[in-house]
Amino acid sequence: MQSVRITKRAVWQTGRMAQRTARIMRELIRNAKAMIEAISAGGIICLVIVLVCILFGAAFYFFGDESSANHTLVNPEVEDYFAVISKYAGQYGIGEYTELVKAVMMQESGGRGADPMQASESGYNKMYPHSPNSIKDPAYSVQCGVQALAASLKEAKCKNPMDMKRIRLALQGYNYGNGIARDGGYTVKNASDFSDMQAKKHGWKSYGDKPYPAHVLRYYPYGNYNYGIGNGKIVSVAAQQIGNKGGKKFWSWYGFHSRVEWCACFVSWYSVQCGYIKAGIMPKSAGVGGMISFYKNKHQWQTRSYKPSAGDVIFFDWGGDGSPDHVGLVEKCDGRTVYTIEGNSSDTCRRRSYPVGGRQIYGYGIPKYDWAIICPIYMVLVKNATKYWVCMVYYHC
Questions:
Q1: What phi and psi values does residue 118 have, to the nearest 5 degrees?
Q2: Which parts pass through the membrane (predicted)?
């Protein structure tokens, strides 16, 4: 049974990687000519800058710290808890940290058993004995575990899902108890010393999992290179707005003085926050039609039968009359279900889900995150007593 589960997971991971590789290769061929023309137009200086960009990006990608490395996908069993995790994460104020909850569950149980968050010994367990695996209701385990993680994130003063320093502290607090947040903060040495001190204090052989943050973060995508600058970044920014009611923040930002249907304003707002409109990756539009035209004109359009990826823009046709009337962002897709973050869904920012190829889906815009490599090269061109000139180079394949 175990071998079947491992094979299933390996096939699932290989399929996702193959799809992404094929997409990258197609785009590479399509844009090779444009890259050569850009280098030719800029001469030798441009060539040097591009090479530095490539070397910098490669070094960052391959030699970054543990949060930069490619993450390991969680089990399908963990993915099956996505709706329950989202429910309780939203209820306890950490809606943007659903991926972290999944990573914790993966480390604790792989999504298996009646206590997938291993929350039986948590102080938030009020229904079952406080002994290992005493919780018999998986949903209640998720509820208790999310509450405990929410408290740890608050104690660690985490700012967002990519605040890796504080997330490490929060994770160690989830494993040890939040006392570590008050006793020096997180470093590998502090975690080890705290464990030894508690073990000695209680007369135990050991206390907690010393490298617990590293164990969890191998399953956490938002700290790695791709999620830090591409599709994961925009998903994270959008998720932080879940729960907003009325959308005034977004339609007034766009320039409207009274309420409008604001789903497209919301998409434009978080696109600007990530710098993707300025970079030409995404359009600024208050209407669905303008966004669709942008992606179709750039040959970045897919029909409803497409299986999307995180960061793709999803368009809807509620009436089935061929006239699109709503837009959102794909948070994830497991091959069967598309999970989204939408503004103006019952006048609220919230998560929703739909079957892949569902009749209400009109199609998808596919932003070219992989090919908008924004590489800052700081060059002092002119220096005097009062000012510096800084050159910021944007290289788009």
A1: 50, 50
A2: 34-63
What tens digit of pLDDT does each residue of 191-204 get? 566 666 666 766 77
User: Measured on CA atoms in the order 263, 267, 273, 278, is the torsion positive or negative?
Assistant: negative
Question: 76-223 sits in which CATH class?
Answer: mainly alpha
Q: What is the pLDDT of residues 269-323, one digit of tens each?
A: 999 888 789 889 999 999 999 999 999 999 999 999 999 999 999 999 999 999 9
Backbone angles phi, psi at 267, to 5 degrees: -60, -45
User: Any idea which fold 247-366 has?
Assistant: endopeptidase fold (from Nostoc punctiforme) (3.90.1720)
Can you say whether residue 93 is alpha, beta or left, with left for phi > 0 and alpha for psi between -120 and 50 degrees? left
Domain ranges of the chain: 76-223, 247-366
Half-sphere exposure at residue 365, Cβ-oriented, CA atoms within 13 angstroms:
27
Whether 365 contacts 295, CB under 8 Å: yes
pLDDT of residue 53: 53
The answer to whether the pTM exceeds 0.85 is no
Q: How many CA atoms lie within 13 A of 358 on its CB side?
A: 20
Residue 327 β-bridge partners = 315
Place of tokens 């368009």: 315
Fold match between domain 76-223 and domain 247-366: no
Question: What does R_g of the chain's alpha carbons equal in angstroms?
Answer: 23
HEC secondary structure over 247-292: CHHHHHHHCCCCCCCCHHHHHHHHHHHCCCCCCCCCCCCCCHHHHH
Q: Kindly state the helix (H) or strand (E) to which residue 82 belongs, with its residue range.
A: helix 82-91
